[in-house]
Q: What sequence folds into this?
């Protein structure tokens, strides 16, 4: 496990996140900012690499206003095909496409995909597909146009990474514990999602290396045997839990581990804007504890 921890540190070094931002830290809860908060309110948290929820920050954003209507979604993507992940047999868990040997992917018609979500909304049903990391600009251009202008909060993070934004669309889906090497402005467009978040300092407790990838944990929150992984209980106690609904945003910093589950029996859509960590986060002489909010 020590070797895995060292390798994770190498990944974070490469991302531009200095070791000082991975030191053990204690947070009672993830900070929540009220409706009307601006990018200037978010910016200090970005400098500290500290997650923050912005309640109701996106209520007047076009995707939040439009994408709750099934008929609009169908017409906006009619005739298009999308790449989807297929659920692991008998579950609603979807591995990441980077995890070797534990996932299946397919390409389906947009309306067929939405039909599968309709079916998953029925009682006792399990989802068949989950559309993750959909690059709206190339895959669903009509929906991409709805995202412009992007949320003003994005100014606190910097220039979006490549073909931003990416959409995540599913029903009753779960994504396993992992971390990302980029900053993320996580925008909740439809439905509700529950996100468990762990500080980078707790990575070793989360047993990196799931599916052969250091970005993933070996801990499965739905099937974990506590006898096999004694750290599981401790990991659960260390998690900060965030509940997001349509119109909310979450700043999820580089290196923070997280697991995501959407509301059972209802469609959920979120959009992520990825950015490179600010240059100052690569400096080992900067202390996040000395950056005043």
A:
């Amino acid at each position: 496990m020590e070797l895995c921890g060292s390798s994770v540190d190498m990944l974070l070094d490469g991302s531009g996140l200095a070791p000082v931002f991975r030191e053990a830290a204690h947070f009672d809860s993830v900070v929540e900012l009220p409706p009307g908060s601006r990018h200037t309110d978010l910016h200090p948290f970005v400098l500290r690499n500290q997650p923050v929820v912005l309640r109701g920050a996106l209520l007047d954003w076009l995707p939040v206003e439009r994408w709750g209507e099934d008929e609009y979604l169908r017409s906006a993507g009619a005739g298009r095909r999308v790449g989807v992940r297929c659920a692991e047999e008998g579950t609603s868990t979807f591995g990441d496409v980077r995890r070797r040997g534990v996932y299946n992917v397919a390409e389906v018609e947009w309306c067929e995909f939405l039909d599968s979500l309709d079916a998953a909304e029925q009682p006792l049903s399990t989802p068949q597909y989950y559309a993750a990391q959909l690059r709206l600009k190339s895959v669903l251009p009509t929906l991409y146009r709805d995202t412009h202008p992007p949320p003003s909060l994005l100014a606190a993070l910097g220039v979006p990474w490549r073909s931003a934004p990416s959409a995540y669309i599913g029903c009753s889906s779960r994504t396993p514990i992992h971390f990302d090497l980029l900053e993320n402005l996580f925008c909740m467009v439809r439905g509700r999602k529950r996100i468990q978040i762990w500080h980078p300092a707790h990575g070793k407790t989360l047993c990196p290396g799931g599916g052969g990838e250091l970005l993933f944990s070996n801990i499965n929150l739905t099937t974990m045997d506590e006898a096999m992984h004694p750290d599981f209980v401790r990991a659960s106690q260390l998690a900060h839990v965030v509940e997001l609904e349509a119109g909310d945003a979450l700043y999820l910093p580089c290196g923070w581990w997280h697991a995501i589950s959407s509301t059972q029996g209802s469609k959920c859509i979120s959009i992520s804007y990825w950015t490179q960590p600010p240059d100052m986060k690569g400096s080992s002489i900067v202390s996040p504890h000395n950056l005043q909010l």
Summary: The helical segments are 2-15, 39-48, 62-66, 70-77, 110-120, 136-139, 141-146, 231-238. The CA atoms of residues 219 and 229 lie 8 Å apart.
